[in-house]
Amino acid sequence: METVNAYPGDEQHYDVSLCVLTYRPNYEKLFTTLTSIIRQRGCSYEIVIADDGTPDFRQEEIEQWMDAHHVQDYCIVRSAKNQGTVRNVMNAYTVARGTYVKPISPGDYLYSDTALAGIVHFMKSEGYHIAFGRSCYYSRDGEQFHIYNGMQPYQLRPYLERDASAAKEAYLLCQDYAVGASFMGERTLMASYTALILGRVVYAEDSAYVVMVSDDILLGFWNQNFVWYESDSGISNGRSIEWRARLVADNHATLTIIAERHAEFADLYRWHMEQREDENSPYTKTLRAYYAEVEKIVHTGSYLQDVDPNELKKLIE
Predict the structure, then answer these.
(1) pLDDT of residue 234
(2) Which of 28, 97, 225, 260 is surrounded by the most beta carbons within 10 Å?
(3) 3-class secondary structure for 22-75?
(4) What is the C-alpha separation between 19 and 192, in angstroms, rounded?
(5) Interhelix angle for 207-214 vs 164-172, to 10°?
(6) Interhelix angle for 207-214 vs 187-197, to 10°?
(7) Contacts of 237 by beta carbon, 8 Å cutoff, 6+ apart
(8) Does residue 315 contact residue 35 with C-beta atoms inside 8 Å?
(9) Could you report the per-residue pLDDT of 262-289, keeping only the tens digit for each?
């Protein structure tokens, strides 16, 4: 890992380190993501751009953009070669100095100029070490953009009711995960769990949150719009067989880590690996019932809550 831009002061600390994760980025999207960051007000932040070995990475152009927008509190860390998302996240966390870290990728944007301060206040006042907010799904087609009625986790009830047991079942059995882009957490916690999966999970950096849930770390839910989430790109939306195979391997690695740490999940581990189609299993019945409820939610309700298209429009334009 090479750090290619240092800060003006070595001892300065921040409320949040915005960790912008790149590999062969679309630079227009990258600069829009950075625009959504530098508009934030109400809290202190730094920007850490971590690149995972992009050939001909346009570092000078990024530095010129930062200079043109009078941004000093940033650094860029680069890998000499592509090593996977988990390693790239770890590189960012290694140099970050915020109380919290917020990973984000080009194409995903902070919802509004008070989103960051809002979730910081929520986490501090409610005592959460990690939390996620609402993700507003969108896609772009040329100069047109579309907003979708979508969100993960599909079921929000466990988090709205602060039902730790139901949230644990939703995560570990039903694998109804919150979108990784919607998370923020304490830097030391995020770094320690990323280190835990490093070397075993390669691309699914949000597997760290699954392991946290297995360790009874409660996920906070900030019931406000936090990020614009580009729903038609990214690793999790990859359609290729190769990418699907990689994500399946990462999922298996995550389940293995949890089973090693918690003997009580050995049966659940075996079910995920071998018996998910067994209709007689109580796990299968719970899974079927859970997603039957999801179907009702999707068809009768809306995930959109006070979504203002102008917040997205002013970023894209």
Answers:
(1) 46
(2) 225
(3) ECCCCHHHHHHHHHHHHCCCCCCEEEEEEECCCCCCCHHHHHHHHHHCCCCCEE
(4) 16
(5) 130
(6) 100
(7) 231
(8) yes
(9) 999 999 999 999 878 888 999 999 999 9
